[in-house]
Amino acid sequence: MPIPEKRxxxxxxxxxxxxxxxxxxxxxxxxxxxxxxxxEDIVTDSFMAYWTRRHELDLDTDPRRYVVGxxxxxxxxxxxxxxxxxxVEKKLQDANDRLLSYNIGSLESSSTEQLYADxxxxxxxxxxxxxxxxxxxxxxxxxxxxMSYNDIAERYRIPAHKVRYELQKAVSxxxxxxxxxxxxxxxxxxIDLLLRHSGRF
Length: 201
Hints:
Elements: H1 11-33, H2 36-53, H3 63-109, H4 112-130, H5 133-143, H6 149-156, H7 160-177, H8 184-197
């Protein structure tokens, strides 16, 4: 079977070259990468690399050696990429395993009361974050700084009745969000304790 001429290979010669050696070249690639589909892609890309660069090659370039050399290079790149991918996957798996162990340990060492308090604290943080800025500032000024309506009104330059309205809105929102966890009469007592001792506000 004729091998394409070194420089001005005709398309028909290249096609004949391709189908003559394709199966053998796939076997070579598969011996490295193990996956048939990947080997086929590498071989096709290597043939196309030869066809694209055929006019740039030396006259004495052996097409078979060129394609096989390209196949080996692409197999090496594929294996290196797979190795990096596997390392990343292992690191992620190790991180997930550590997180899982930490969560299991936390659950085993935490009392029911602590888990309950943590959940309430998370809801409190979420609700405060989602409140309008002024509402949140007024609420925290009242509960953490124990400021009076008049002092808050003076700080934010708003009427005292506006302070009262914003506080009522915040309390109503928090009571509603915690209704499945606490009786309405205890919501603000628990919130005050969390605000003072959590160190997050």
